[in-house]
Write a structure and sequence with these properties.
Structural class: mainly alpha
Order of helices and strands: HHHHHHHHHH
Radius of gyration: 20 Å
Shape: globular
Number of domains: 1
Strand content: under 5%
Number of helices: 10
Helix content: over 70%
Largest sheet: none
């Protein structure tokens, strides 16, 4: 796993992967920008105090804008991993193809495209799965607050499981048939969860979190192809 990590880290210097990283970041930030504009429009002129009885405190456009910025920043903090990974999943095929061309030319020649539509669908499913996993885990996050570090450990474990599954499905979809892919996914649960946990931990580090999903995609590609010697892995 250490070797896979450093090889994937080296792949981040490839200009093509840097281009994918930049595009995925721009798309992710655009999503949050659209969310912020939508929140600003929804909050302007609204009356949050109406929910508490006869009190009135209508928000001016400026106050609505400030509230939208605050809520968007909060959403950016909590939802960035799910949204960023969902966006990157739409680019996983491109990332996998670059890694294959660099390190596994025979596998690159044998790979099959999953198509843009399937990639986007998998990305949306990935983001939804991460959100659902964390909603299910939310009561346990609260229960573990008294431990101090408990919620953090659970966060890494829950998201590591989700990220590892999604990245594995995306990479494996380019190779083999359904039976082979399911066999590989079943045999690599621990390794993929470890990769997912690394990605999750990196999401907690400012600025480093920007490269976390792309690094996870390159690591998973190496994990899959290094376990497939018959595909000409070097």
């Amino acid at each position: 796993m250490i070797g896979i990590f450093f090889r994937a880290l080296g792949d981040l210097t490839d200009s093509r992967i840097l281009g994918v990283l930049l595009r995925s970041l721009l798309v992710t930030l655009l999503i949050f920008a659209v969310l912020g504009v939508g929140l600003g429009w929804a909050l302007a002129g609204s009356d949050p105090c109406a929910a508490f009885g006869d009190m009135e405190c209508p928000l001016s456009p400026a106050e609505g804008g400030i509230g939208a910025i605050a809520l968007t920043l909060l959403a950016l903090w909590f939802l960035f991993p799910a949204v960023a990974l969902g966006v990157v999943c739409a680019y996983v095929e491109r990332i996998a193809a670059i890694v294959e061309q660099r390190h596994y030319p025979q596998a690159a020649a044998q790979a099959k495209s999953i198509g843009a539509g399937a990639a986007v669908a998998l990305g949306l499913r990935s983001a939804a799965r991460v959100l659902v996993y964390n909603l299910v885990a939310l009561p346990f996050y609260v229960l573990l607050l008294f431990t101090g570090i408990g919620p953090l450990i659970l966060f890494v474990a829950v998201n590591g499981m989700a990220f590892g599954r999604d990245l594995g499905e995306m990479v494996a979809a380019r190779h083999g048939d359904r039976t082979e892919r399911h066999a590989w996914l079943g045999a690599t649960r621990v390794q993929r969860m470890l990769i997912g946990s690394i990605v999750t931990a990196l999401f907690l580090v400012p600025f480093v979190n920007l490269v976390a999903p792309v690094l996870g995609a390159t690591m998973t590609t190496h994990l899959y192809l290094r376990s497939q010697p018959r595909r000409g892995v070097r």
